[in-house]
Amino acid sequence: MVLYRLAFGLGLVAYAPFAFLRQAAGGRKIGDWKGRFGLSALPRFSRSIWIHGVSVGEVNAARTILEALRAETGGPFVLSSSTAAGLAAAAGVRAADGAIPFPLDLARPVERALDAADPSLVLLTETEIWPLFLDRCARRGIPVAIVNGRISAASFSRYRRAGRWLAPSLERIALFAMQTPEDAERIAALGVPPPKIRVTGNVKFDAAGLERADVAARLRELAGGRRIVIAGSTHEGEEAAVLEAWSALEPRPLLVVAPRRPERFDEVFRRMRERAGECVRFSAAAGEPPAVLLDTVGDLASAFGAADAAFVGGTLAEVGGHNPIEAWAKGVPTAVGPHVANVRAIVAEGEAAGAAIPVRSSGELASAWRELLSDEPARRVRGAAAARLVESHRGAARKTAAAVLPLRKTA
């Protein structure tokens, strides 16, 4: 632990100037750095259940688990996040009693956060493993569980190389509620005893379909009777491919682009205006523009309610993919690129059902969208298959709540 603390501290010192300069230049936001350093006041709770999601997607999953827990037990419930967008999303979750920034893995911030939250149970979404945080929870007798857990092939390889260094942290986790049997096999291969592992499903299937109808209604107004295609969670390089594919369609539908990171909004908007002309930002939209930049955080899932077809980002860029569940829940067939390491099992199911259409280039994306928009019966069949697939996977939040509640510290 001493070596880890030294390495983490030195790494943070080296990284901090870069992070602040990047934010000043309009890049990725740091978030509530004072809160993460334990330098600002935090709301105080007693015997809370603390659920952590690193960013917006994980916060949405955490929200669904929180709602399932609230149906079974009393609070208070605390949500945390590591990013500015995630913390903003957490603050808007009505079922939570409070939202706090997740502390940096340093002794003072961790101790201050634990003092404030006073948790009787901590739930970390996906595979958030912070050695010092886990150590301090263990010292206080606070049970910790991984929920909605997943381990990609790349993460599995890194964790295996970590070997002995990772083992003490894994031992301090009381339960691993994993998304798939493959995730469960990987965590077992890292040395976790089988009795501590459960397969509870992907909570994001439960989170889908609970969004705001007014966002979709506003997009339909902007479309003025045109069809609507949405490119969601896009990364660097993907917007150019999306714009090229959209330009090849005739008649052109309303294009909605939602970059994955808010700090890229200005850059993407400039590129959209260069290619599409008088496009608008959703936050100030009017008229019937050719294209819209979705520049409001947390509204993508709601926007899919207006879509006729979609593309899920992080799949043409070598990112590993983002999940298409939110689009499928609205009955929207979705084009997906080849880079899907993070969502391989979900995408494979979607392809088999007809909900996901594999594409490898802007040209193939244009062909997929053209087919969906020109053949309404076929589009409806694919959309219905997508909605059925999501429905068949619901229930993970309830299973997760049932698995973790017996861990809660009672005294």
Tell me, briefly, the overall form. globular
Q: Output the radius of gyration.
A: 22 Å
Q: What integer is the average pLDDT?
A: 91
Content of β-strand: 15-25%
Helix and strand composition category: alpha/beta
Cα end-to-end separation: 28 Å
Number of distinct helices: 19
- What level of helicity do the residues show? 40-55%
Give the number of DSSP strands. Answer: 14
Q: What does the largest sheet look like?
A: 7 strands, parallel
Low-confidence stretches: none
What does this 3D model show about the protein?
The chain contains 19 helices and 14 strands. With 411 residues, it is of the alpha/beta class. The strands form 2 sheets. A 7-stranded parallel β-sheet has the order 3-2-1-4-5-6-7, with helices on both faces. Strands 10-11-9-8-12-13-14 form a 7-stranded parallel β-sheet, sandwiched between helices. Helix 5 packs across helix 6. It is globular and about 65 Å long.
